[in-house]
Design a protein that fits this description.
The protein is of the alpha/beta class. The chain folds into two domains: 2-187, inorganic pyrophosphatase (n-terminal core); 207-326, Diaminopimelate Epimerase, Chain A, domain 1, CATH 3.10.310.40. It has twelve helices and eleven strands. The chain has helices at residues 11-26, 44-47, 105-108, 110-113, 117-130, 137-142, 146-156, 161-173, 183-206, 232-236, 275-282, 301-326, and strands at 2-8, 30-37, 56-60, 73-78, 94-98, 208-212, 215-221, 242-248, 257-263, 287-289, 293-298. The strands form two sheets. It has a six-stranded mixed beta sheet with strand order 6-7-8-9-11-10, covered by helices on one side. Strands 2-1-3-4-5 form a five-stranded parallel beta sheet. A hairpin with a 3-residue loop joins β10 (287-289) and β11. The radius of gyration is 22 Å and the shape is globular. The protein starts with a strand and ends with a helix. The chain binds manganese (II) ion (MN). Manganese (II) ion (MN) binds next to loops.
Length: 327
Amino acid sequence: MKFSIYTHGDFDGLVSGAIGYNFCKEVGLSLDKITFVEYSTYPPEVWDSYRFDPIVNVVTDFPYSRALPSSDFFIWADHHQERFVPDSSEITRGVCFYDSDAPSCARVLEPLAKLNPLLESLVPWADMVDSARYESAEQAVLMKDPPLRVAVAMSQTFNDDVFRAELLKMICQVPPDQILSHPKVDDAYRRYTWKQERSIDFLQKNLVLYEDKDVLVGICSFVGYKFSSRYAAFLVQPNLDFLIHIRSIPPWDSPAVSLSVSYNPWKEFDCVIPLHEILRDVYDGDSGGHVRVAAAVLPNAQAAMELARKLAQVVCTRLTTAREKVT
Ligand SMILES: [Mn+2]
């Protein structure tokens, strides 16, 4: 019998898809196809009416599809919050793995990962990348560890599904350090490090610092540049408490930019202020996020810069007030 893999096109999708692939191979199935799925190309209405082939279908790190029961058998695994989870009593030929507390989908599939030591060893790396729990700013920016270089290869090759399917099979067979010499993995890493190095150089000259009462906020705008880095500012200025990051977003010919505000993930805080609420207070337009990271889309770079300055001031005041209440 045949099987197909449908998995999200990021590193966690790669590892969890490989766990599903490895399991199907182990039980004697033969591969039909591997498909990388994105929310933009498979929105709910499309995904729920997708015509699955009558074979074994495996969906990982992506929402459950109401069309999955048309499979001969299916496996669905996910860890994202607020997913629709089908009633298990209604499922006769399928199995669902779901845990919204898991840091990665690979972690949800850990029992199946144990069938292959190579995949089992990648589960903690999938946790790290998918939940952005890097040990240091240096690790997050430079991505030097072999599994992280594989993650870079995944993030830099979103238009090359043939290669990504090959990569998914490769990680089942060889450890990451033996994949690094693959021309596409090597090329992706060179392109990635070029962007990071340019970002570090750029921030050394252009990171704007706002300091008030022992609270340090960095503001960086990558608008108009071909590089941007989420973490380079913390490498350039490790003492930052908060970072406000502004960058261009697709479509690239539109003036709209994205602004995000986040905590320094590598600094300990005695008290925590909710950034999503603060952003909502300061900015009238649509915004989202949670306590530690919040973001909004602004009409242009100038509006974003104005908001950033205001936000920096409010964040300093709010953290100082919160600290005074504690002591
Ligand atoms: Mn995931």
